[in-house]
Every structure is written in C-alpha cells, then in structure tokens.
Amino acid sequence: MTLSCMCFCLFIWTAAASLATFRATPFVLYAKINGSESMSCECPDHSCQEVFWYRYLERTKSLQFLLYCNSAGREKHGENLTTTRFKGSVSSGQRVVYSLRITGLQEDEIGFYSCMFKTKSIMPVGYYIMPGVNPPTVKPPTVKTKTPKKTCNCKPPSSPKGCEQSVLWPGIGALLLLAITLAGTLYYFSRLPKKCRHRFTKTNQLR
C-alpha cells in the first residue's frame, strides 16, 4: 500500500470513528443472519473516478478497509476479506453511482458502513447494518373515542317516544298539584260545623 493510500485510509478512520460515535446515519438496515445487503454512494458529477468502501465494527471498535473501486470497474479488496462476499459495481448516467453488495452477513459484523471519494471532499452519511437484530415494532396510535352526550330532541307527533322524559315530569307535577288542591278542598269542607252546612243547604234549596 502506497503512502498516499495509507494517509487517505487514516483520514477515513478518523472520519468514520467520529461518525460511528454519533451514529450520524439515516439508513438503518436490519439484515438477517447469512443475509445480504446493498449500499450505494452517489457522486454529484463525473469527477468521482475512485471510491473507497470501509466499515467501522461496533463490537471490536475497529475500522476495516473493504473495497477500492474505480469508474472502469476495477476492484481491490482489503486484507483477509473473501472477494465473493464483497462485490462492488459502478453505473454512470447523469451521476456516477458506486454500489457495494455484501453477502453472508454475521452478527459480529454489526457496524457503520460507508464510502469516500478520493477526489471529492464528500463523505456520504452511510449505512448502519445490524445483522440478526429485529427491527423495532411500532405501536399503533391509540384513538380516544368521546362518549356522545345524550340529548332529548323532540320528534314529530308520529314518534311520541322522543320526548317521554321532557313531557313525563311536567305531567306528573300537574297531577300532583291537582291532587293536593282537591285534597285541601275536601279537608276544608270536612272541618266546617254542621249548622253552617245545614244553612248552606237551605240557602241552596230556596234558590
């Protein structure tokens, strides 16, 4: 490895370590054990001729160089890496997009994965891959239902049941008032002296 490549890898290690510390990645991938994941790094123009892929493993707290790829599709893998597991590719159109596909992911490969363009001071945010970890379940939002207040709205005469409560109590009150008045009148006449009642009867007969 040349001195320039070593310096560049040192810069990647510093940047990756800081990113992994803060976990500044919007992409979290919950991969299965022995599963595969694909990642991509997009260059805003055609000046990105070379890209370096790397990862920061969470368990060992170590940075690992994965793959070098140029615009012609030439690859160079890192040390002690199986070339069949890490495969790079490039596609060009309006923008140049470099991709990396990893197969056979294991639990000890949880970490931060990203790339760095050699001729650009651009460092994509990257991916946080978590093999063997189940994605969090989102609880459905709870909807509070309001109990409707019961109101008595009068219905047409054909449906008298609509206002039973509003009519029943005034009717009972009127009947009670009439009963009290009648009982008071009967009690008043029952307390009158017999003579007064006799005179009252004669007077009615003379008339």
State the main characteristics.
single chain; 207 residues; alpha+beta; Immunoglobulin-like; 2 domains; 6-stranded mixed β-sheet; 3-stranded antiparallel β-sheet; 26% strand; rod-shaped; transmembrane helix; coreceptor activity
Which SSEs are present, and which pair or pack?
Blueprint: H1 3-22, E1 27-29, E2 37-43, E3 50-57, E4 62-70, E5 75-77, E6 86-92, E7 96-102, E8 111-117, E9 127-129, H2 164-190, H3 194-206
Parallel strand pairs: 1-9
Antiparallel strand pairs: 2-7, 3-4, 3-8, 4-5, 6-7, 8-9
Keywords: Adaptive immunity, Disulfide bond, Glycoprotein, Immunity, Immunoglobulin domain, Membrane, Signal, Transmembrane, Transmembrane helix
Membrane topology: Single-pass type I membrane protein
Signal peptide: 1-17
Structural overview:
- The chain is of the alpha+beta class and 207 residues long.
- The protein folds into two domains: 3-129, Sandwich (Immunoglobulin-like); 160-206, no CATH class.
- It has three helices and nine strands; from the N terminus they run αβββββββββαα.
- The chain has helices at residues 3-22, 164-190, 194-206, and strands at 27-29, 37-43, 50-57, 62-70, 75-77, 86-92, 96-102, 111-117, 127-129.
- The protein has a six-stranded mixed beta sheet, covered by helices on one side. Strands 2-7-6 form a three-stranded antiparallel beta sheet, with no helix packed on it.
- A hairpin with a 3-residue loop joins strand 6 (86-92) and strand 7.
- The chain is rod-shaped.
- Mean pLDDT is 75; it is low at 18-25.
